[in-house]
Structures are given as C-alpha cells and as structure tokens.
C-alpha cells in the first residue's frame, strides 16, 4: 500500500467526512452523497480514491447486486493497535527490568 | 490512540535512587527488543555518557562502534529525564523523544515513561522498518488521531 495515496486520499475534506460517516457503519453511495451534499459522480470519484487507498471496501448486499455498500476496512485499526501494543510492551519490559534492578539491592522491602 | 506511548510502574526505592539507576546503570537492566533495535548490528551495551543536559545515550556495539541514540534535553535528578531517541533506520527529519518522570509515592517511586514523536516518521521509513503504515498517518494530525479513537470504539 502506498502511504502517499493514503495521505492524498485523506487530504480532501469530503473524503475525511466520508470516512467519519462510515465509522458509524456501512452506507450506500447514494446515502453518502446526500449526507455530503455531493453529486453522484463526485461521490463516486471520492469513493474510488478511498478504495484505491484501501481505506474503504465495497460490497453488494445479497438481496440486490445492483446496490453497492461501502464500509471501512478494519485492518488499519488492527495494525495500529498492534504497533502501539509493541511499543507499550517495549517500555513495560524496560520498567519491569528497572524495578527488578533497583529492588534487588534494597532487598525489595 | 495516538503516536504517544505512556507506561508507568511503581518500584520500591527513592526517586533519586531510581533516577541514578536509570541513567547510571542502564547497561545492567536494559532489555534489548528486536522490534525497536537501534542498528542492524544491535544489541550492544547502552550507557549514558556524561551527566546533565547534553549527555549522550549511546549503544556500544560488539564491533566497537558507538551509535548515538539521543542527547539528554532535561536532566533533573530524581524528577525528570528527557532524551532523544533515534534508531539507525530513522530518516534525518525524524525525531522521537522519551520523557521519564520520577514521583515519590510514599516509600516508593512511580516511574512514568512517555515516548512521543512517532508521527514524525516519514513515509519512506515504513518499508524498511516494519511499522504499519497507519502509524504514519498520524502525521496527518490530530484529526486522524481522533478519528482512530472513534474507529477503535466502533470496531470493538
């Protein structure tokens, strides 16, 4: 994935707003266009940019193959959480090591 | 969630003692972490060279080479220590900072570590370093951070 394309995708206010709306749950392109006050072609262009940046994915509800529903992809969140957990683990480990070190000499009392 | 890591732990020793151990004996207690290794040839031995602001935190490798992790920006014995944190893979314009606070809690000391500035990581760094791209979206500012918090709630 290209970070630049992601940043570019999010640099546009309508696209940021789209991502915020999708945070509440999947929506159809028409609903998004209405909420943002955009024409359908403009909305399509923004959704394509978000898809290409892999921030959203489209699916078709089983009852109607003509309708496209857009949803946020969960992976970015999962990866970010994994990274933050790794960095937290780094420092938790260091502090535990420091604690063991300073308490060893005082007998831990 | 943000590009800031915050961890705290209490230990049975006075703040001055914990501070002295942190800076003076880091080589004895530091545990290398492969995810955050300073250089491709790490791990080596960590030490603070000098005292006070301007002291250097370095890693001395088996080869004899010395890698400077960062310089001390605040040195308040028993209270606060702030130093830069760079890994060899970091780009020139990237800088993270570690702040350690030492607070007396009765007979013990609460040590708090705040590691911030990860949002300064440039895009090109990601592939070499294995951090997920999304971390670097934090460069995009607080908007994205707030959004991620919303997403985290949403996806829980």
Automatic annotation (TrEMBL), chain A:
<dbReference type="GO" id="GO:0003700">
    <property type="term" value="F:DNA-binding transcription factor activity"/>
</dbReference>
<dbReference type="InterPro" id="IPR036388">
    <property type="entry name" value="WH-like_DNA-bd_sf"/>
</dbReference>
<dbReference type="InterPro" id="IPR001845">
    <property type="entry name" value="HTH_ArsR_DNA-bd_dom"/>
</dbReference>
<dbReference type="InterPro" id="IPR036390">
    <property type="entry name" value="WH_DNA-bd_sf"/>
</dbReference>
<dbReference type="Pfam" id="PF01022">
    <property type="entry name" value="HTH_5"/>
</dbReference>
<protein>
    <submittedName>
        <fullName>Transcriptional regulator</fullName>
    </submittedName>
</protein>
<feature type="domain" description="HTH arsR-type">
    <location>
        <begin position="1"/>
        <end position="92"/>
    </location>
</feature>
<dbReference type="InterPro" id="IPR011991">
    <property type="entry name" value="ArsR-like_HTH"/>
</dbReference>
From TrEMBL, chain B:
<dbReference type="Pfam" id="PF08327">
    <property type="entry name" value="AHSA1"/>
</dbReference>
<comment type="similarity">
    <text>Belongs to the AHA1 family.</text>
</comment>
<feature type="domain" description="Activator of Hsp90 ATPase homologue 1/2-like C-terminal">
    <location>
        <begin position="12"/>
        <end position="154"/>
    </location>
</feature>
<protein>
    <submittedName>
        <fullName>ATPase</fullName>
    </submittedName>
</protein>
<dbReference type="InterPro" id="IPR023393">
    <property type="entry name" value="START-like_dom_sf"/>
</dbReference>
<dbReference type="InterPro" id="IPR013538">
    <property type="entry name" value="ASHA1/2-like_C"/>
</dbReference>
